[in-house]
């Protein structure tokens, strides 16, 4: 996209909160579930089944993303996707997002416009009918995007982490380890010493592009959350910190052992187990109930000495924190 | 409160996200409206009237508060109160809060515990039955508290900003200008040059203490939001940026002129008009419908050349941004 003249693209410190929120909200279509949209003290969203599913997740520059690697569009998309996945993981359909932005004064208005485009397009692609219904804008030296997602259970009971029963199939929908592969590309190829540098697409092969896209613009299978609940899923969660750690959490919550089949985890089993941020759905189903879109990766057993097994062996469940040592790095 | 030994009060960078969230959630009682509480990918909150009111508001260290002046308890209380006020201003009853915290690594666990106490006590005092039902914790160099509040309309229609009609009474519930007076005490008395210094209560008279409390731990009349809606309020909003600016916004949204009576605004009319952060409720009512708790401060007129009058004269509506020039000040 060609740069706009500076006069058309002011720094956020030089424009009113109202203008920035307007720029966001005019770029996002109304939600099908919005009874009262932006412009008042609060929005009103339909909750026809008499309850609302609610979750919040924040992306902070530094530990969660780098502007050298993520565009505004990427950031909006990812902030939407990770929150939509949490709603889907309860078996609900996402209805609305609220976006609290804290932005450096020298950031350009066009960045926020692209952020709004990312929110809009992620909703359209992943959760049609869901949209940004409200927001808040503050100033901060650290770019921070805090999103709350709401959803409707459409009369279904919520699917928790604690309902897995011995004999159930363990299944997954979505990628395992691809987002981590994308992060490895960034860490390995687009740094100058410790400082992230912009991605040069010409240096990427097709597989690397797919991995990078999974990291920067993940596409969790949001609609399959409701499908799983309808099919009778006994437990469900989204995989944000890696299959190993999140499967252990489900095993803990349900008081069972999850026994995974390594041959179902793709060519790189370690990456599938350890890599986070794909936001795939992990679910358990009674025998014969596996719906289309989910693939079996193991079985639930009565609790043994280990919470998680892969091919009969214990699994390292220390999990995913790729930025752990990166917080002092700028970029 | 005496300091705890350091071993009992670790820095947040040295403890797991789970432990911190646990510390918050064990200190906050379950909401009466919580169908499924913390521990899963999302919470489920009752929305018996088939819709949910939702709003988000963020406090950022620097522009919105200073740790030299606000304790963790103050911060939790205020972050709850300002969001509860937005729900109340729609005529709804608050049901749940979600709290996204971004915290510096060197902050102590006890700070977050006190923050949670502030959330709990603000809900108990201002919106009984409402509680923190979910959260998210990330690391950031800038302490940031992003809160989403949900509420239930209990079968009432939402009260917007746009329904004020000529002939209605303009009324307010809550303080006007007291929080601004508290901020003036902080700015005037508790600085070393440009750097905020801790408040010494011994240096404060009773009036100053009340003003400081209104600034640090505001007590907006949350329950009166539902009361106003039941009484037939035609328009309502909370006064966050000062009566003048917010009344102008209501006049704009409704296409009317609000004519205020200066004698109803207390001894310091300028402060009542300009001072923000009290989160009083501004509402309009048909003649004779003013409910207990609200006091009349003017009348709605057909739109004239001015949106807002006080004693027949135009009012400066440039509004409230006390920290505008303070963002580079540390403390």
Automatic annotation (TrEMBL), chains A, B:
Alphabetical keyword list: ATP-binding, Kinase, Magnesium, Metal-binding, Nucleotide-binding, Thiamine biosynthesis, Transferase
Pathway assignment: Cofactor biosynthesis; thiamine diphosphate biosynthesis; thiamine diphosphate from thiamine phosphate: step 1/1
Sequence ranges assigned to domain PurM-like C-terminal in this UniProt record: 165-288
A single MF term (Gene Ontology): thiamine-phosphate kinase activity
UniProt binding sites for Mg(2+) 4: 41, 55, 86
Binding residues annotated for substrate, in chain numbering: 64, 277, 320
Binding site for ATP: 135-136, 161, 240
Pfam family, one: AIRS_C
HAMAP family per UniProt: TMP_kinase
PANTHER family: THIAMINE-MONOPHOSPHATE KINASE
Protein name stated in the entry: Thiamine-monophosphate kinase
Species the sequence originates in: Microbacterium algeriense
Organism lineage: Bacteria, Bacillati, Actinomycetota, Actinomycetes, Micrococcales
